[in-house]
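Hi support team,

I'm opening this ticket because the web form for multi-chain structure prediction keeps timing out on my end. I have pasted the exact lines I submitted so you can reproduce it. The total is 1287 residues across two entries, so I didn't expect it to be a heavy job. Is there a limit I'm missing, or should I split the entries? Thanks in advance, R.K.
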Amino acid sequence: MTEGALHLDLTGLGRIYLATWPYLFAQIGHFLALLGLNLLLLGFGTAVGFLGIDVLMDSVGRAEPLSAMQAAVMLLPEAGYVGVEALSESARLEVLFRFLIVSAVILVTTTSAFTLLAMYKVWILQRVNQGLRVTMVRNAEDLSLRFHARMPAGDGIYRVFQDSAMVTAVIDHVVVQPVISIAMMVLQIAVATLFSPYFAVLMLLASVVVLALALVVTPRLRTWSQAARRANAELFTRVQETFQGIQAIKAYGFEDANLARFRDESTKALDTAFALRRDFAALKVVVSYLLALLLFATDYLATRFVLAEGAVFGASLLVLFGMSVTQWTVAVHQARRSRIGAFALHFEELVRVWCYAQDMAVGLGRAFWLLAQQPEVSDPAEPVPFPAVREGVRFHGVGFGYAADTPVLRGFNFAARPGEVTALVGASGTGKSTAMALLLRLFDPDEGSVAIDGVDLRSVLRADLREHVAIALQENVLFPTSIADNLRYASPGATDAEIREAAEVALAVEFIEALPDGFETVLGVGGALLSTGQKQRLSIARALVRGAPVLVLDEPTASLDAATERQVFANLRAWARGRVVIVITHRLSTIRTADRIAVLADGGVVESGTHDALMARGGRYRDLVAANERQRG
Amino acid sequence: MDKRYHDRLDVRTALTGGDVIGLFGRALGYLWPERRLVAARAGLMVLIYGLGLPLPWFLKVLIDHGVMQQAIPVGGKGLLYPVFMNGFLDSAAGMDPLAVTVYALAILAVLFLFVGYSGNTLLEANLAEGADVATRSENKISAGASVAHGLVGFVDLCLAIRLSQRITHRVRGNLFSRLSRQPLTSLNLQRSGDAMFRVMHDAPSIAGISYALTLNPLAMVVSVGANLWVLTAVYGSVAPELVWIGFSAVGLTLVATSPLARWARRASQTSRASGSATTDELEEGFRNVAAVQSLGGTERQRDQFAAASRESFRQSLLLVWVANVVEWIAENVHLVFATAGFWVIFTGIVRGELTLGDTPVVLRMYSLLYETAMQFGRIWIDQQDNAAAARRVFFSMDHQVEPRAASRRPRELRWSEPLTLRFEGVGFHYPDGRRALEAVSFEARTGQTLAIVGPSGAGKTTLAEMTPKFLHPTEGRITLNGVDLAHLDTAALRRAVAYVFQEHQLLSDTVAANLRLAKADADIADMESACRLAGALDFVRAMPEGFGSRIGHGGGALSTGQKQRLSIARGLLRGAPILILDEPTAALDPETERALLESLSASRQHRLTIVIAHRLSTIERADRIVYLDQGRIVETGTHAELMARNGAYRRANS
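Hello R.K., no limit was hit. The queue was backed up. Here is the completed structure from your submission:
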């Protein structure tokens, strides 16, 4: 299928990400709350970590006195702890004991808070994903049949599930996580600058190298990601088609060949998925090694500072974070290590997110492609109510084709009046079903108009129209629910009595009641367990349940035996009083009883009239009848 | 299982602990064919833990002998180091602090190049995923993680991903093959969304199980063993509490997490079932979009999908809850031990027995022990999710498939010889007990056309479907040249039968690919002549790319009559000695029908033809007519005989 090449340059990416905005915006309050709480907790964690290293390493480890603030937090008196030359052994143990209790309380609180935050995030993201999936499905089902004819169902399903998940992932990975990561990285660089400006220079240098590296690898990742998704959608389609068309596959002993194709496609999908992950992993490994080297470089510098007993560059500001020292000590050395470590961790996270973003851009492109398909058939801005159907249905000069250069209908004029049964006949492939699809506005005509009581169908709501026009389809589509639910499909409010009445008209009651659970019998896929003739009668009954003023029967009785068909038709005629009934059929017996017959050929109606009038005229209709007769003779 | 997710075959889904063990045993079987990859990974794992062991000790060197400027005596006398550090200590003895720092950093840089800071975070290459089972399977298919970074970690990760993929590939291939070989009666009962879900989303779980139970525990044993050994060797005499704490951390983590397994399993099963219900809703809607639109069902279909999808999310949220609670418990257990560890180390420092450099060493070993025990405890819980999926996979694999033949060595038939098909007292009832056929007997030969007629619901299609063994008689037998069909090879039999379905079954592929389903090596000339016979040639030629044109799903822009004709052409192309046409002409206009019937009768002498029909025009030409009503044969004979008899047939056709 054609999808138009995805443009994955920066503007293309930007456009895709912008498109996620409405879904994000719907939950903006939650997202801001999530972001705020996360930053708060992380900032708190950094401060507590500082305090901890200082107290443990310098006070407990090297007997240095506490700062007044540290003593206050641990509920210790200043005497003996603050401002003394060195802490006594018992004081050191007391500090250790209190410190461990305070930090345990803080840690239990923060891990609990983080757990709750994680749940909160999942909850928000699920809400977003739900909204998106439903929008995609709605859009896909509103799209005209012309679109569906070109798109394999498996591909659509893959898009809805796999690709829509990407929107939520984008919001998580491209918006929430990076904001946190970048904020934390900036904070770490700022703190590291307070230790020594050299650290900041090294960190910025490492950042430039890592970013350059990521940019170089990016196009490869995108290419692989696109290939992987395409291969997977193909595999999905294969599986879906197999279970759809299993009868044909079995009948032709195609199982083995089909399996071989499945295996090939599976291998292709796996290979592309592997290549994508391999490149991704390689980038991660290189980045984390570069960041380790950064850490080692600062290890060396910090050790030199301690050995030289140098002053800490921004000591006066560090005090704000609870550090009590002004000189390079082992505590400062280790505090510096934990900052650089945190910087590296957040940076690796950022690189991971960048790689995700490449993959997600591809997924999003596919998801939004489905969302961006404009329904060819749309509702009018100012709809008029559905007319009362007094004059009937009229096709006026209608032209229509599925593809631009092969018109199916050309200058098609046709009318059907209430209280009459109008038959539409013609060779197969002449456009009979297509004309009826236009009546239901599954498509709109390319030229001309379809009107009921002079009201152009394009000016009524689709839902309104479809409520008033009932159709029994040529292909019996039944859903795997109970018979009653199937009959009620088109008119959910129908009572049991109404359903039964419709089933009686369609001569379906007898076989339904012979089934184990009667009307509550649950059908298999596509109505399996029923014969085609039975399914046809259910389709007819379903159309009748609506009691719509316009009824279309598209080859409704092709699979019925002659006696049943006659009976169904007799019932229908009685039922159809005052309604427009249009029947598409090949059966002479059915045609003959119609009030009017329209013969379709070469995209237009070539003759119309009663059976007798058309026979007398000696045109195309008589040829059709003669062909039928010859066979019988 | 929950009735909400209606599945009609797979109904008993509760899993006991014993079932789970059985499932795991089976999952492990899939590891054996990949034993070389497994062995390679096991080897790498030892290398990773070996190289990872000295890492924290160099951090101790950096603190104690760099920053704290403690001199290294010859032979490392009086220092707490494991034996494998002796070489380094000897060579660094007497160096000044800055030189020791540079030396240790250089060694660290080399070690990192190979294994990174192994054990700290996992190296993985998962991509973004959604928040329910269906969207996570993509990462599961290519699941892989290495405890190391660096070059070794990279190689290890690549092997791990390949291993998962190979197992998944094998499992889903088998599953796909088994599913497509199930008898039609079972397939009709199941929903295709469910089958899809099993192949695409459940199958990847097998790989997860198979190494969660082998490589992961092995890695954990190696890691826990090595760390406890070092802990004991170095601190056993100075601070034995450190060792005890380490041992009990492993034990307590395991105990604290295990009771959650059952809970997790139940949540996961419901989550999967509701996921496949969502796929179903989606698929129904997409496949039947014409019906949905024309019946005004768009709103309802959307609401149903929205409800199914919301439920699916709700269920997976539950799963996430369980995982998070487990995580929370484990973190707090860890906290208890880390606090105890700090107490011991720092009291040791205050007493002068330990040094500040011991802090990163002990903390790293504790965190490795805890992480490992944590993963070990989670193996069982995580596997509950996989067990639920594995059960669904194995259920489908074990479900009865069509037998190739009743006996081990199927009987051979010479298909080129004239064939005689005989039904001998055949009866059939569906699994739900409904009777479709009773005591049906008749005979048909090559060169003949047999027509099956009767009111709809009489059992005509059931009868026809027995010939290629789509259905098997529940009473009586069917023979071909005297051989019971049950003893014939199913594939060979189906090669000899061309079956044209009442409801056309076309794949969304090209016209040629659909035709070649019947005969893989058919050339254009073959296809043209089959299409000409079926009256399909004109419209195929009018399609934009002729035989290369794609048909949309379910047949796309072709009319029903055209699809039916293609489907007939496909049956004819097969050139099989038995041709079964189920209502072939229902969707054809009289002209096309006449042409088709004439050409069929012109070439009938090499073929046994069975036709199900209502139209008199089709039936009249048959050599023999079987009139079926309510599963029984009411009358048989030629058209003239039956009309003369004045029975049910005559009544139906007058």
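A quick check on our side: The beta strands of chain A are 393-403, 406-416, 421-425, 447-452, 455-456, 469-472, 550-554, 580-584, 596-601, 604-609. Let us know if the file doesn't open in your viewer.
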